[in-house]
Amino acid sequence: MPAEHTLVMDSTRGISPDSAAILSALLEGVLYGFSVLMFMGTIWAMTNNHRMQDVNRPITAVAILLLILSTVHIAVNIIRVQDGLVNYRDTFQGGPEAFFSDVTEKTYIMKHMLYVLQTLLADGVMIYRCYVIWRRICVIILPSILWCCVAVTGISGVYSLSQARNSTDLLTTLLADWVPAFIISALLTNLLSSGLLAYHIWMTERSVSTVRATRGSIWPIVRILVDAAILYSAALFARLICVIYNNNGEEVLVDMTMPIISIAFYMVLIRVVINGKTCSSLPTEVDTEQKNSQKNLPTKPLPIYTSRFTRDDSTLYRIGSVDSLWTREGEPVKGALCNV
């Protein structure tokens, strides 16, 4: 067995590299199938009963890109498993265990490059949501700095692997410094962005709940944001623990995180669309009173206060202020959309 592979395998713990590769491919396949179903549900929710010009094209493009990256990643992972266990089983010096321990192997570099791109895309969308919600540049300064740290550490780590000639090359030793920094930066970016989103939506809900005519609520969106943040953060934290203890389970978590990122994005988007349709279809107390009094009272202006939540193609979320609307008895109340 070559010395360059011996050093790598002796320094790792947990399950063997070849067992980790098989397990990661299986678990990623299960989660990928679920993410495909979530993607189909997302597209259906965004296009059902909507005109094509009303569909949010930027967010749809992000959803498709996440699916493409996840699909390419699982394809590369399957090719890697096939190469290590079938194609190069008897020709690669050291066997399958040495093959999966080689961090300079091209499929290893490629799937980690895809992982970095997926992380940057998902975190970038979260920061964009924060800007759209808050409408303040100062709010996204810290998340943007953390996003840049994710980009620098991720790209530097992949570049170090691509330039290394073997597993004991000096450039590969730098990976031990880049990986923890990348994970911590991504974890902080996710927690901070999700926290800012949930906090602003909660404050908006509390400020308009006393004067809103509709009985709908955007609390489900707050809960799903928290759930998505916990799901993604748990995967990152578990990977960080594996990296600190130099455990081969880290590779399993890397492959699992790819579809988890997509799932977290889709579950938030589906909840937003469903909540918007539910809120816009709920009758209001004012509507009921209007119908009961329509036959007995003369027509006159009636002040109605509603919280208006609108969305257009240029933004994902747009929360409006409380407006004073005027209508006549017997007419439907407008402006009570709850698309956040």
Task: Give a short synopsis of this structure.
This protein is mainly alpha-helical and 340 residues long. The protein has helices spanning 3-10, 17-47, 57-87, 95-101, 106-134, 141-163, 170-173, 175-208, 219-244, 249-281, 285-293, and strands spanning 301-310, 318-328.
Strand order of the largest sheet: 1-2
Shape assignment: globular
Distance between the termini: 58 Å
The residue-averaged pLDDT reads 76
> Which regions have little confidence, pLDDT < 50, spanning 5+ residues?
1-10, 280-297, 302-340
| Multimerization status | single chain
Strand content: 5-15%
Helix segment count?
A: 11
Q: What helical percentage do the residues reach?
A: 55-70%
Overall strand count: 2
Biggest sheet descriptor: 2 strands, antiparallel
Question: Which H/E pattern describes the elements?
Answer: HHHHHHHHHHHEE
Structural class: mainly alpha
Rg of Cα set: 25 Å
What this model shows, in words?
This protein is mostly helical and 340 residues long. The protein is 69% helix and 6% strand. It is built from eleven helices and two strands. It has a two-stranded antiparallel sheet with strand order 1-2. Strand 1 and strand 2 form a beta hairpin. The radius of gyration is 25 Å and the shape is globular.
